[in-house]
C-alpha cells in the first residue's frame, strides 16, 4: 500500500547529475554560423550616419556661451524678413484693419458676425461711437479675401450693411453683406 517514494528534489538533482551527450559536430556548425555572421556586410553609410545622429551625447556650455548663442539667435530672428500667414506679403500688409459701422437706434447691444468669426455673436461685439448714441462701430483686422457678414442687433434682428453690397444667395434667409479685402 505504501510505496517508497523518492523526494522530488532529490530526483531532479540525480537527473541533473547525469552527463549530457552533445553531438561532436555541433561545435563545428556553431563556429561556421558565427563566421558567416561576421562576413555579412557592414551597415551602409546612411545607417551608420543615422546611428551617429541618434546616439546620446553630453556637452557643457558656459553661461557666457549660452548668452552668446541666445543673442545670435535673436539677431538672426530680427534680421530675417517677416512673412504673412497666407501670402508672400510682409506681415504688416497681410492684414488690414477695417472699421464696420451701423446705425441702430434704441439698440441695447450690436454684434458683428461673419465668415471671419464663424458667425459667433460673442466674438466681435460692437461699441457705441458716443455714449447713448445710435452709431455702433467695430474695428477688425482682416487678411486678404472675400467675407460675408451682417450685424446682429439685440441678439435677434439681422441687418445687412447699407453701405456695402448685399448677398442675395444667403441660404439661411438672413440679410448679409460682402466685403473684399485686397492684397496690397
In percent, how much strand structure appears in the residues? 15-25%
Number of strands: 7
Instruction: Please summarize the sheet with the most strands.
Output: 4 strands, antiparallel
**Backbone structural class:** alpha+beta
Order of helices and strands: HHHHHEEEEEEE
Please give the count of helices: 5
CATH superfamily (homologous) name of the domain at 91-181: Immunoglobulins
End-to-end CA span: 108 Å
- C-alpha-based Rg, rounded: 40 Å
Percent helix range: 25-40%
Global outline: elongated
Using the coordinates shown, work out and report the CATH topology of the domain at 91-181. Immunoglobulin-like
CATH architecture of the domain at 91-181: Sandwich
User: Can you identify the CATH class of the domain at 91-181?
Assistant: Mainly Beta
Summarize model confidence as the mean pLDDT: 81
User: Which regions are unreliable across 5 or more consecutive residues at pLDDT < 50?
Assistant: none
Overview of the molecule:
The protein is α+β, with helices and mostly antiparallel strands. It has a domain at 91-181: Immunoglobulin-like (Sandwich), CATH 2.60.40.10. 29% of the residues lie in helices and 22% in strands. Strands 2, 5, 6 and 7 form a four-stranded antiparallel sheet that branches. Strand 5 (145-153) and strand 6 (157-159) form a beta hairpin. The mean pLDDT is 81.
Task: Describe the structure using short key phrases.
184 residues, alpha+beta, Immunoglobulin-like, 4-stranded antiparallel beta sheet
Gist?
This protein is α+β, with helices and mostly antiparallel strands and 184 residues long. It is built from 5 helices and 7 strands; from the N terminus they run αααααβββββββ. A hairpin with a 6-residue loop joins strand 3 (127-128) and strand 4 (135-142).
